[in-house]
Amino acid sequence: MNRPTVDAPPEKIADAAHEIDDVFRTRWSPRAFADKPVEPQKIRRMLEAARWTMSSYNEQPWRYVIATKDDPEAYDALLNCLIDGNQEWARLAPVLMMSFVKTTFDRNDEDNRCAEHDVGAASAALTFQATSMGLYVHQMAGIRPEVARETYDVPEDVEPMAGLAVGYLGDPDRLPEGRRAAERRPRSREPLSAFVFGDKWGDTAELLTA
Ligand SMILES: Cc1cc2nc3c(=O)[nH]c(=O)nc-3n(C[C@H](O)[C@H](O)[C@H](O)COP(=O)(O)O)c2cc1C
């Protein structure tokens, strides 16, 4: 196995059952971020990775807003779009983003059934690009969509999707006490057999047991 890309704590490195790239083993979602700005070049590289994500009909339905602590007013406006429970720790992150999804196709205004899927893929690409540069991303479903809509005057066919906190890894002691244990908890996952099926729903694909 290659050397881990980021200096992830050992309990956060995936105990993978099959060999996978280090970006997948070492990525995890911290809440404690370091008080250290992220280089603008690295932020641009993350967004460039999102840009080159595959999407249904190459529609590219992802949209992002971004704010850094260099602009406190913009940063606070974006922080305010998160629910309180996420604001509590996300305020440590030097960079915040929010993803949005354009729900209809540009070419015919019809519903894009896979638009949310494609925004998730773009955010995954952005996240793994971050991992490869020593950065961490923590995504958040806990947003206040109506606040985001108003703050950014979002068009009708665009929906606020998820918050993203971005930065370098910080000391768990920077978090409120109640959040520190989770920060050190090992990552866990269901086995492949729980979600990869063969000819019958629920039956493990033969390929996995061969
Ligand atoms: C779309 C999405 C929404 C999430 N929402 C939240 C959230 O609102 N608050 C939070 O603390 N973590 C949130 N998470 C983080 C997940 O809880 C985390 O990814 C999961 O527990 C797996 O942990 P890992 O990313 O460290 O492997 C979210 C993750 C994703 C991908």
Structure in a nutshell:
With 210 residues, this protein is of the alpha+beta class.
Could you walk me through the main structural features you see in this protein, from its secondary elements to its overall organization?
The protein has 210 residues and is of the alpha+beta class. It has a single domain (10-170), classed as NADH Oxidase (3-Layer(aba) Sandwich). It has helices at residues 22-26, 40-51, 72-79, 84-90, 115-132, 145-152, 180-184, 206-209; strands at 62-68, 95-102, 136-140, 158-167. It is globular, with a radius of gyration of 18 Å. The model has no long low-confidence stretch (mean pLDDT 95). The site of flavin mononucleotide has 9 residues, from strand 3. Flavin mononucleotide is lined by residues 28-29, 86, 139-142, 162, 187.
